[in-house]
Prior knowledge:
Elements: E1 8-12, H1 16-19, H2 21-34, E2 39-43, H3 47-59, E3 64-69, H4 71-76, H5 78-84, E4 87-93, H6 98-102, H7 109-118, E5 120-131, E6 136-139, E7 142-146, H8 147-157, H9 164-176, E8 181-187, E9 190-196, E10 198-202, E11 224-229, H10 233-246, E12 255-260, E13 262-266, E14 272-275, E15 278-282, E16 285-298
Parallel strand pairs: 1-2, 1-3, 3-4
Antiparallel strand pairs: 5-6, 5-16, 7-10, 7-14, 8-9, 8-13, 10-11, 11-12, 13-16, 14-15
Keywords: ATP-binding, Kinase, Lipid biosynthesis, Lipid metabolism, Nucleotide-binding, Phospholipid biosynthesis, Phospholipid metabolism, Transferase
Family: Belongs to the diacylglycerol/lipid kinase family.
Protein name: DAGKc domain-containing protein
Amino acid sequence: MPEIRRHVAVLVNPVAGRGAGEAQGLAAVARLRERGVEARDYEGTDAADTVRLAAKAIEAEPDVLAVVGGEGTLASVLLPVLESGVALALLGGGTGNDLARAHGIPADPVGAADVILDGRRRRVDTGTITADDGTVRHFLTIVCAGFDSRVAERTNRMTWPRGAARYVVAKYLEAIGLRTFDYVLLTDGDRLERPGHLVAVGLTPYYGGGTPICPDADPADGLLDVTLVGPTGRRGLVTLDPLIQKGQHLSHPLVTSARAASVRLEAPAGLVAYADGERVGPLPLTVAAHRERLTLCVP
Length: 299
């Protein structure tokens, strides 16, 4: 059982989980205090305020920074976490919770709070995405560009319907106009040119709330797993989807997979990438894995 000498800082993104973040933060803080831990809560008013409060929390030198929020929130505070070396804990609260899923961390805040005290510390990989203008963004799960990123773009533009139904409608509309992209992937010096509907580059297996698009990804091997789904058309994509949901698609003849420490993604102008469920920007981009840079609280 890890010893807490100072305190646990609990950082809450109140808009996480469609507004459920505040309640989950209160539950986690209550559990930690119930178990005798000094838990200091930091709750922002919005995502930007959450980033500011993360720096403030880290300045107080906690043993653990525990975050209530999704992968987007985690990625936004990752740089100061890495610079400080503080251990990071996941307390749920996101929409997808794919990083927690990859490490077997409970989605409920009480169970996740217990992991801080009863679990262990594991060194895991992080990733960077570098644009051609030199802009660098950190990520923790998967970078995608193609069908899925276009669905996300469409979802963000839509005002109706609300909730999860909006994503379903966006996915259906995008499938109607399904596009094929001429990808160029440079992986550790090897060049791969192949048309396809989507490409995913992952540190961990899951994205989109549990889809194992990179099923064999190891979060501590210092490598990226690449999955490229080749041109198959709407009917073929529908047929392939059940295999993807089960993580059984890598052996399909239309799927190309690779593993590398860095990957440069190129595609026709206008294709936008997403990472950790958040918009990154247009390709080309260079994605790199950084081995065991982050200390994570895991079961």
